[in-house]
Write a structure and sequence with these properties.
Structural class of chain A: mainly beta
Distance between the termini of chain B: 36 Å
Order of helices and strands of chain A: EEEEEEEEEEE
Low-confidence stretches of chain B: none
Largest sheet of chain B: 7 strands, mixed
Number of strands of chain A: 11
Number of strands of chain B: 11
Shape of chain B: globular
Shape of chain A: globular
Number of helices of chain B: 0
Number of helices of chain A: 0
Low-confidence stretches of chain A: none
Mean pLDDT of chain A: 94
Oligomer: heterodimer
Largest interface: A-B, 24 and 27 residues
Order of helices and strands of chain B: EEEEEEEEEEE
Strand content of chain B: over 45%
Chain lengths: 113, 114
Amino acid sequence: KQEVTQIPAALSVPEGENLVLNCSFTDSAIYNLQWFRQDPGKGLTSLLLIQSSQREQTSGRLNASLDKSSGRSTLYIAASQPGDSATYLCAVHSGGGADGLTFGKGTHLIIQP
Amino acid sequence: SAVISQKPSRDICQRGTSLTIQCQVDSQVTMMFWYRQQPGQSLTLIATANQGSEATYESGFVIDKFPISRPNLTFSTLTVSNMSPEDSSIYLCSGDRGGNTEAFFGQGTRLTVV
């Protein structure tokens, strides 16, 4: 059974810092991996999707990497802003893509102005 | 990605009653899923909503408790039946177009059972 772990569980940093969020998964036979952000009282917003054959994806100030063989992914946020404050979720898509996602518990991020 | 409209956004219900949550997608999607997010926890998959056939449930979830319908490629409902306080959670629907495409989510339904 796939398990996803995210470290740290919570993080508080001053505005402007670069930061890294970590995600690990137990079964390396994944289809893809997706990073989301969740804001209080709202649904999930997709940030980046990395296919199993890819090593990284970039969108603006966000960069996600994937090392499938070691079961790890990182989300790098450059020049953090208060608007980046949210819970960041890592989710793995296994089973050939036809199954649902397995989520980590998330990293609760606070960017101090 | 597509947009999913989910309703209601929140509800407070009496124990023993049932609530039906609806999700409408603005374009056809291949797959639709239902998740539960219990307080302080991450999302757990309840079931895959199959178009025109019975849903596929994950271990620990049963059709009698969480009946699901998906009459077409843009609409699905989840019913939480015979509710107890332990059912208090956020329920979210999700869709994707299959293959290596992004999953996208509705805004969620915050359910409180009293």
